[in-house]
Amino acid sequence: MMKVYIFSLTLVASLVKGNDVVNAVEVNTTSGWVRGYEENYDDGKVFRFVKIPFAKPPIGKLRFRPPQPIGEWDGVQGSSETKSPVCPQWHFPSPGFNFSETNEDCLYLDIYVPGKISLERNLSVMVWIYGGGFIIGAANQYKPQPMVLKGDVIVVTINYRLGLLGFFTMHDPLLSGNYGIMDQIEALRWIHNNIASFGGNPNSVTIFGESAGGMSVSLLTLIPSNEGLFQRAISQSGVVSTVTFAKKEWEIRTKDLFLERTNCSDKRDAAETLDCLQKLPVENITNAIMLPDIMDSQNVSYQAGGLYPSVDGKLIDEHLAYPKSPEDKSYTFFRSLDFMSGTLDGEGNMLYTGLTPDVQKKYNFSVTEKIPKSVLCEMTAPVFVNNAVGNVPELAQEICDFYTTAESIDAQSNKVCEFHGDSTFIVPSNLMLSTHAKDNPQANTYQFLITKTRPFPIGGDPPSWFKGAGHADDLRFFFNFSDIFEIPDEKRKEYDEDQGLSEKIIQYWTNFAKFGNPNGENIPLWPSYEINRKQYIIFDTPIETAENLKSEATDLLSRILETGRRHLTRDEL
Questions:
Q1: Angle in degrees, 0-180, between the axes of helices 551-567 and 427-437, rounded to the nearest 10
Q2: Of 141, 118, 126, 161, whose CA–CA distance to 25 is shortest?
Q3: What DSSP element (H or E) covers 158?
Q4: Alpha carbon distance 162, 263 (integer Å)
Q5: What is the DSSP pairing of strand 295-296 with strand 108-114?
Q6: Beta pairing partners, 545
Q7: Predicted pLDDT of residue 413
Q8: Which range scores top for mean pLDDT: 321-325, 469-473, 506-510, 563-567?
Q9: At 343, is the secondary structure helix, strand, or coil?
């Protein structure tokens, strides 16, 4: 039986800045007592439980090992601070990612509960998995109070190990990789076993995430042993596809470079190598391989083996061959879940932000003015084809022809970006939605497209020629970033207008989490994604619906991916 009591906590209130903290609450979990703190808002109050450990610290002999269950602790866990620890990662001088401190002891989660703590509430639960390319990010970036209050759901944000600490692999049982994905699963296990103590329903859990977080969400749905840990899934701007995983040659190159730079390359076997790596200062690991080491300066591709999920033959194996037939047994668990996936129309902004000075010099252009067709035809299309199939010039030429326009240099620049957005985000999402929806009466499928541009885009204003809502511009609809981004006075009106759309989107998301159906009162109808019509909702002002998103691009690129599925074997990756 859970024991809950509330008491005055004046001292804590004086320590927490920017929040009107009045009370604290202590909740008894299977691991021990957890303390949370009350926050008061115009819409109501939220109890936040920050820095709750879900696994033992992954340090010392637990570094580069699967997460170990936290077990039981003494005393009371839960910090009066508003931010939990950040896992070690590269310094990334961008708003929200410029963390001043990191800590290898970082396997914590944060829980946000609306109103009050009561066993009888049985609230639906939403678990957020952050993005950042599996190399940067933190749970504490995302303040979900708007979703918690407006949607009346519990939101949990979780940490997981990143970069080499999370994904380094030697394809050996002692150093198999995918520790970051294992961390996510261990967090979900802890939530499943304990969320009822916070008033949550362990049988109504939705996992959702964006970019690498969206890819993680879709990957978790393809691991049958996760059955029971969640019932619904939302992948935002990212799903698993054939080209998600690193080629084996990249992983070997990363392994050799990493071990050389850490002086662990002369060991006799994996056991000695692991021992060497576990004794290193953590900064020796995070600084061993940097962005230039994994980036081909001539083609803007990231050959990042060992820095994101790999095919380990155990946790991740058959999913490499995605896309497969919906009838394949590997999709049984996935197709039992309610599934939502979607993207933004300007996902291709990820291309122009990654075009290095070397690339611009090679192709004789400035990204602020244009991106020429040659970047598509000689660089991005051949790289995509090579990663998916191998060196097949005629397939690269098909892509080049499809994304060529004679309208204007501005239109062509957007076409180059459009291919990147289609191949990386939109087409894989379309394929996964179709796999889920085909002849599937047991679960619901929904698709969305966001076209509403951000009043002040992350990373600054795009080039004048760029059109569309850029990657990650949707995050503002769900989370409070007021402590990260300052709203310029000249953008205040646009920002305030955004709030109406934000409230509708939150209603859709939280309805889906509660019922498996995003529809509800006072919001436009969102049609389900059916295999014959493929309807989706467009989030802009006003909200509209359409069908068959990017059907021709999907036909072209999926044919190439299918060719790669038939020809590539695991040993070639």
A1: 80
A2: 118
A3: strand 154-158
A4: 21
A5: unpaired
A6: 537
A7: 98
A8: 506-510
A9: strand
Residues 6+ apart with CB under 8 A from 231: 203, 204, 205, 206, 337, 338, 516
Q: How far apart are CA 167 and CA 189, in angstroms?
A: 20
Q: Across residues 109-136, what is the average pLDDT?
A: 96
Quickly list DSSP for 85-130: ---------STTT--S---S---EEEEEEES---GGG-EEEEEEE-
The residue type at 334 = F
> Which residues lie across from 342 on neighbouring strands?
236, 448
Q: Which residues contact 559 (CB under 8 A, 6 or more apart)?
A: none
H or E element that contains 5: strand 5-8
The Cα-based distances of 396 to 184, 297, 392, 430 in angstroms read: 37, 20, 7, 21
> What's the CATH class of domain 323-341+348-572?
alpha beta
Identical fold between 48-290 and 323-341+348-572: yes
DSSP 8-state class, residue 563: H
Place of tokens 């600054």: 460
Name the residue type at position 348. Answer: G
What is the dihedral angle through the alpha carbons of 399, 401, 403, 409, rounded to the nearest 10 degrees? Answer: 140
Alpha helices in 438-545, H assignment, sequence order? 492-515
> What's phi and psi for 228, nearest 5 deg?
100, -20
pTM over 0.90, yes/no: yes
Domain boundaries, the chain: 48-290, 323-341+348-572
Integer Cα distance of 119 and 29 in angstroms: 12
Greatest CA separation found in the chain? 71
- For residue 124, is pLDDT > 70? yes
Note the CATH architecture for domain 48-290.
Answer: 3-Layer(aba) Sandwich (3.40)
Enclosing H/E stretch for 256: helix 248-261
The pLDDT value recorded for residue 323 is 54
